[in-house]
Design goal:
single chain; mainly alpha; three-stranded parallel beta sheet; 5 helices; 3 strands
């Protein structure tokens, strides 16, 4: 992502704020919510890190790659509403009402076909571009896993980063 943007405009400085909490469902991205598998508070940690980084720079975008844990019959139907709420909360809490929010598609691997619940979460990500202003969707078409049928291999992660950058440039009107 950062390399692709820097190649487009070498005058910019890019800082990435790591806020991932691997495997976390969207419900764990609520204020005060503790997510035991990562021993952290996804929402609180992300907001704290973003605000700290914003003292030295300007928040230009949010990259979102999450949804596997919500791809279950009891969670998928409510995912889209929760995702929209999450975007509103990020923008309000960080005082960035128009900050681009780019959702990356979950891995599509032949060895692990998608069930209807995963398709529903995927559709929520795809729907962002028509339902929520300043959003984008980076697809995972033709990317490969690292052998676990869940995580991308290194080359695929780099390609996904380029796709995030392309969507970011599209959302910001800087694609040309």
């Amino acid at each position: 992502f950062a390399i692709a943007l820097a190649e487009k405009d070498p005058s910019i400085h890019i800082g990435l704020i790591p806020c991932a909490h691997g495997g976390s469902p969207i419900d764990s991205w609520q204020p005060g919510e503790f997510y035991k598998p990562t021993s952290g508070h996804p929402w609180d940690d992300a907001i704290r890190r973003a605000k700290l980084a914003m003292k030295a720079g300007t928040l230009k975008g949010i990259l979102w790659h999450q949804g596997e844990s919500d791809s279950k019959p009891e969670l998928a139907p409510a995912y889209e509403t929760k995702l929209h709420d999450l975007i509103v909360r990020f923008r309000k809490e960080l005082n960035t009402p128009d900050v681009p929010f780019i959702a990356g598609q979950m891995g599509q691997f032949q060895e692990r076909p998608w069930e209807e619940d995963k398709k529903q979460v995927d559709q929520a990500h795809r729907n962002l571009v028509t339902q929520v202003p300043f959003t984008g969707f980076a697809n995972s078409d033709d990317l490969h896993h690292k052998g676990d049928q869940v995580h991308f291999d290194s080359a695929s992660y780099r390609e996904l980063g380029r796709r995030y950058a392309k969507e970011f440039l599209k959302v910001t009107g800087k694609e040309n």
